[in-house]
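Predict the assembly for these two chains.
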Amino acid sequence: MSAALEQDGLYEEAGQAFGQALERLAHAYEADADLRRDLLQEIHVALWRSFASFDGRCSLRTWVYRVAHNVGASHVLRQRRTRGHELVGLEELEDLPDAADSQHEVDRSHALGRLLALIQRLKPLDRHVILSYLEGLDAAAIGEITGLTAGNVATKIHRIKNMLARQFHEGGTES
Amino acid sequence: MTELQNPAQRLWQDQPVEGVKMSLEEVRRRAGKFERRIWRRNAREYVASLIAAGLFVYFMMSAHDWLSRVTFALFMVAMLWIVAALHRNGSAKKLPEGVDTLTGLRLYRAELERQYGVVKSMWWWYLAPMVPGFIVYTIGHAVKVPHPAAWAGLAVMDIVVAGLFYVVWRMNMRAARCLQRMIDELNVPE
């Protein structure tokens, strides 16, 4: 198979398998709908270009998430220059007050909106970890995508679970 | 994928998506558009530099006295120096795709630090090269037209130029502070 055909094939395979995850990821990096559409297109283009140098040393999933997260992080940092809201780490989010009991009553879209608002405040590295966790990736896969050690990933996931439990009144803080 | 343990994971994965799909043609078109935009931007910079250099050469050749020739020669050298420095430092380095997040962020921080250095030292590579041309121009014209009114005009011109230099310098220092904040905020583990 020629390199160009292989590149196209990999892109189509990735789009099929991870298209929806990429949309969710774009949602976590950009709140504005128009800018989000542009970001998603930017991710797709970066992905297609990246497959020209994909050597199969990591899985397709790891590659897709790495490329998409890197585009997302660049986008956030670029926007940071113009928008100016401060990004925080997981440690700071842990210190947020517990959500009020009335939050039990909120509908799903409100809960999703709150979850997105929390994610969109995070610094790039912590944002990658929480998004990978929410996508259901295990600690080993998160480590492969982010380059963090297993210990670091475990600590961050523990914090994420605590934070989610406190903010959304969900049980279980075991890592 | 692990089995979903946390309701937040379910909430996240069940969120409605538009199901956006990009065809290969669309992706290729957009990638091509991006590359053309970069090419056009570079071409514009080089064409503008060539036109400016051509004008300085013309002014230098058609000047009637050696002081004017020296002035235009100094401005031309300054401009070539600035263009070379812009070419060397100005454009952002492309980060490799497919690297893990930590490596990507470290490379990004290194790029920000490089940009910070470029902005912080802009006096030396952007403003200072123009100074000799202005000094020779001022002295040359002050000697050529020894009249208080002409000197006053030269003084006004120099004050305006100095003011512009100051504004450009302040803007760049503000950009440098912004870059420093971004570097601090990234807080990438070593």
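Residues 55 and 63 of chain A are 10 Å apart (CA to CA). The mean pLDDT of chain A is 83.
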